[in-house]
Amino acid sequence: MSTIVLDPKIPAGPLGEKWTNFKTASKLVSPANKRRYELIVVGTGLAGGSAAAVFGEQGYNVKCFCYQDSPRRAHSIAAQGGINAAKNYQNDGDSVDRLFMDTIKGGDFRSREANVYRLAQVSGRIIDQCVAQGVPFAREYGGMLANRSFGGAQVSRTFYARGQTGQQLLLGVYSELSHQISAGTVKMHPRHEMLDLVLVDGHAKGIITRNMVTGEIESHSADAVILASGGYGNAFYLSTNAMGCNVTATYRAYRRGALFANPCFTQIHPTCIPVSGEYQSKLTLMSESLRNDGRVWVPKRKEDCGKKPSDIPEDDRDYFLERKYPSYGNLAPRDISSRSAKEVCDEGRGVGPGGLGVYMDFADAIKRLGENTVRERYGNLFEMYENITGENAYKTPMRIYPAVHYTMGGLWVDYELQSNVPGLFVIGEANFSDHGANRLGASALMQGLADGYFVLPYTIGNYLAPLRGTRPEASRPEFKKAEDEVRDRIKRLLSIKGNRTVDSFHKEIGKLLWDECGMARSKEGLEKAIKRFDEIREEFWSNVCVLGDGDELNQSLEKAGRVADFIEFGQLMCEDALDRNESCGGHFRVEYQTPEGEALRNDDDYFYVSAWKHTGDGNRPELVKEPLNYEGVKLATRSYK
Amino acid sequence: MNFNLKIWRQEEGSGQGKFQEVAARDIPSEASFLEMLDIVNDRLTEKGEEPVAFDHDCREGICGACSMTINGIPQGPGRGTACQLYMRKFSDGDTIYIEPFRVGAFPVVKDLVVNRSAYDRVIAAGGFISERCGNAQDANDTPIPKTVADYAMDAAACIGCGACAAACPNGSAMLFVAAKVGHLGLLPQGKAEAGRRVRGMVAQMDKEGFGNCSNYYECEAVCPAGVPAAFIAKMNRDYALASVRNAVEATA
What we know:
The structure holds two protein chains of two kinds. Chain A is α+β, with helices and mostly antiparallel strands. Among the domains of chain A are: about 140 residues, Flavocytochrome C3, Chain A, domain 1; about 130 residues, Fumarate reductase/succinate dehydrogenase flavoprotein-like, C-terminal domain (Methane Monooxygenase Hydroxylase, Chain G, domain 1). Chain A contains 18 helices and 19 strands. Chain A has a five-stranded parallel sheet. In chain A, strand 1, helix 3 and strand 2 form a beta-alpha-beta unit. The radius of gyration of chain A is 24 Å and the shape is globular. Chain B has two domains: about 110 residues, Beta-grasp domain (Ubiquitin-like (UB roll), Roll); about 140 residues, Alpha-helical ferredoxin (Fumarate Reductase Iron-sulfur Protein, Chain B, domain 2, Orthogonal Bundle). By secondary structure, chain B is of the alpha+beta class. In chain B, helix 5 packs across helix 8. Chain B has eight helices and seven strands; from the N terminus they run E-E-H-E-E-E-E-E-H-H-H-H-H-H-H. In chain B, strand 1 and strand 2 form a beta hairpin. Chains A and B meet through helix 3, helix 5, helix 6, helix 11 and helix 12 of A and helix 1, helix 2 and helix 3 of B.
């Protein structure tokens, strides 16, 4: 057993009062002292951008980093559907408690209760803040905000801006960040990639970055380091993530001692455009909001799969989500919808090339609402679909298939969003705490902004207040040593000059993860994959080909470093999936299922967070458990029937 | 499909470049333009030649990282960004010219990669609403008519890619600037500092070396987000009014 004991630092008191109690008791840094502190924020998505902006407003000195050429391009921008908030503007019975319960249940009872409750509590404030900064949410004719419903909920609590909600929220964050940049409180470093975390006396006190234009390796010191570097879905190569999304920042922190929690909890989104060929570089999401009006079906008989959908009569269609989950129907949560789609395709009833697709049909919605209303709601998505597939979804049903979309796992954090490494804070998708084993739609944007705007600015004080701005200088030997290690690694990558491209390795591990650690996992497959990762790593470090130099813009080199980390990290995902002998949320172990094929959870043995500790290269990671403790929620079998 | 590519290659810091001819053979017609470049890059790497550097990220047409000019058109033919262009739109055997955006204010970094930080500086010069996070009023306290919110959204849809400036014979960024001025200025929350905003952003735009609008409307034609050029007229009005007001206030 490990010697590490994880303290989630959950405040005392009833669930509804914990956050207030915490804020009342937390330490403050006085306005005059804030300017003596420096904070590093890595990532400029909803979480990182909002945190950096607020810290700037509060008077801290912030150094902010992103790999993109502008903070406005962080991948939050691609979120389409919406953001949840318990405003109950629709008067349909919503409340903080209901949003909390939906999120806990959606996560299949594997998230931390107190964190989720706080998320639901601050959700309403996020909408207020976004409107104040000029986010043009969809409105009704009376001028009030419009809502729609999303998977796993029976109320309309999702706020949206056409099919570009993530873009509008991120541009709101970016404008606030730009305001602080012009005020001089935030110093922005675009096209900089974090390549290592620096610890001084066991505390996170800085990072090593590579300037992606000049190749310069730089040390940056601070009083605390905040990672908001997003998720690791690109481990699968094909995902809905942007091409640059990577695990390097969080994985490097893991190698320095931060624990990685629940890495096997990944989300496969049910409604993406199916894969069409080997050359494919990414998968495109079709917003879950489409499931409000689209009906998902496949032919009842295998023989009909080759027919045109319009030639298949109503009676010969299987609306499988409506059939299996009558109360939620097409709005069943993502893990359940994805698995159902996989099942019908495994039965040979899939449609389109390779039989890996199901229909999402808007014919009924068009009949009910008219084409114009459907166009107003989803026009840009239909256009995007036509552009990619050449098919008109107003006339023929869309073909969709699940794809990797989001990662619930991330660095372990306590209630204050601090990792087990003092001074290292982790927010947004990069941490693990709020979504358990499955995230509900429209809650990633909510969590990102909650962490950055309304949680971290209150919780970081406990760590910062006693320090009084006594950060170490970047000239200390710890920085020099880390810089040298980063340089050596780059040199090594460039010197291999082997026969295989970086992408070919990335595709190989992606396929391995998709097959063995994707929608269905088995002991046998995971053990095989863990071994295979060792072989791939060895081949990578002896046969990868990275051309060019280190002291210039070199996209192959950037990719090579990220893929090297994905190879090691993919193995950790499999280790985690192998340890968890149960099925829950997006983690489906074929050995553990009910007779109807639903996930079979095991609360007696696995009601804990798996936090993994790095124990050196070549050694298997060590498992540290944080037992979950629910005070307000009764564990129950999830049912959406 | 087979293509004859003429790709702009420019070494970092050299200030000069030239077209390299590359044969792209056996490209699937369902591949996107960037996937075609991926295939070309993998083959170059296998031959020991350095792959072509180009900016890209989300590959869904929303992040705005794409910055290439294809056959003379910024972001390529058709609506949308270069990543949303599919090879089936071309004919077998086509010659395709691929260049970076050509704007003085966006210097070329390497190959097809340009430096668009000028746009970030224009936003930092006023493209925001000064408010403090924490205690905003309830989101429904100020009703905003649907037509106003929708129109603001038309402008807010700008992805900041820079195609407008790259398409303009004057190298003008006015569609980009007008989109932000229009978006924030239309909303009640953004009216308080609308005058300051438009003056600040226009001054920074001039300082960065972008040209002025003389109504070519090339920007609107290439804008992947479909931002209407009418916002430029609105910005000109806003700017004139704000300048007069500012001059009067200075004498008062």
